[in-house]
Specification:
alpha/beta; 8-stranded parallel β-barrel; two-stranded antiparallel sheet; 10 helices; about 15% strand
């Protein structure tokens, strides 16, 4: 199993210095990948409750965000080996042609190191701000992926849909990775899981108990088989939002939270479950307020310390 780490593109620690330090140290410690997260707004009165807190309020970290694609480009220039991933970009916030050009540039300039994670999004405030409809996000997602793949694989390119249109055009520069950079989808509802099975290269779960991940991945692979795909080709990259504490929360403990030993045990269980990769994001850990704190977390979970 591969092991990745989240870049500090969000929260009070987000800065060029922190990104450089984390990027370089990740390669030195043997990590396989680096990841960025997307957030557009931290609304004062959210229309949609945040799914990660009991009261629906947004974490303080979401008030400070560096653009994820710009940060990946910056990290690419300061590394030579690690993969560079998004977890996740919201499909409804962007035009697939414009995004394809940006992602192609990252893949080309990094020498083929891009991994793309997409999600449907959950914040009505952000959908309203970018001028798209949250109600049509599922239909847009299917078209979005088809259009993106057309830009990456066809030449000349043409796409005609209800939401996106690309006139017959030449686009000569393509990603280094063939047929295109791997596409992972965050999905929890049956229709979204079906999209993973038919259009994605893999699933990217977060915040789900490990037993639930195994069951849902089995379901996705079953859907893939029913649609004529080889289910063994689908991979799983697990986002681990780690929260380190001095004492265990006991039976109420959330996955990847608690003491160092408990979190390390969760990582081992994910490996034993058959995940292809897990990446650690310490955004919500107390240590993540400084670059030095993040580097300390990297040391504690380095691949050699986990036997990976």
């Amino acid at each position: 199993m591969k092991l990745g780490f989240g870049l500090p593109n969000i929260g009070p620690v987000a800065s060029p210095d922190a990104i450089i330090k984390v990027s370089k140290r990740a390669e030195e410690l043997g990590y396989d990948s680096l990841w960025v997260v997307e957030r557009l707004l931290s609304p004062l009165n959210p229309q949609t409750p945040y799914p990660g807190t009991p009261d629906g309020s947004l974490p303080q970290q979401y008030r400070s965000v560096l653009d994820p694609l710009q940060v990946l480009s910056f990290a690419a220039a300061n590394t030579s080996r690690v993969s560079l991933g998004t977890s996740v970009l919201v499909m409804g916030y962007r035009n697939p042609l414009v995004l394809a050009q940006s992602l192609t540039a990252i893949d080309v300039l990094s020498g083929g190191r891009l991994i793309v994670g997409f999600g449907q999004g959950w914040s009505k405030d952000e959908f309203d701000a970018v001028g798209t409809s949250m109600a049509s996000r599922a239909g847009m997602a299917d078209e979005f992926l088809h259009a993106l793949k057309a830009v990456w694989t066809d030449n000349p390119v043409e796409f005609q849909g209800n939401h996106f249109q690309i006139p017959p055009s030449y686009i000569d520069i393509k990603p280094v990775q063939k047929p295109h950079p791997p596409i992972f989808l965050a999905a929890y509802a049956p229709a979204a899981m079906q999209r993973v099975a038919t259009l994605g290269d893999g699933w990217m779960p977060a915040g789900i108990p490990i037993e639930g991940m195994a069951q849902m991945m089995e379901g996705i692979r079953g859907m893939a088989s029913q649609s004529g795909r080889d289910p063994s080709e689908l991979k799983m990259i697990v986002r681990a939002n780690i929260e380190i504490s001095d004492r265990s929360a006991g039976a109420e403990r959330a996955v990847f939270s608690g003491t160092l030993d408990e979190i390390k045990a969760d990582i081992t269980r994910v490996k034993d479950m058959g995940a292809d990769e897990v990446f650690l994001d310490p955004l919500f850990s107390p240590e993540a307020t400084t670059a030095e704190g993040i580097l300390g977390v990297m040391e504690q979970f380095k691949p050699s310390a986990l036997g990976i």
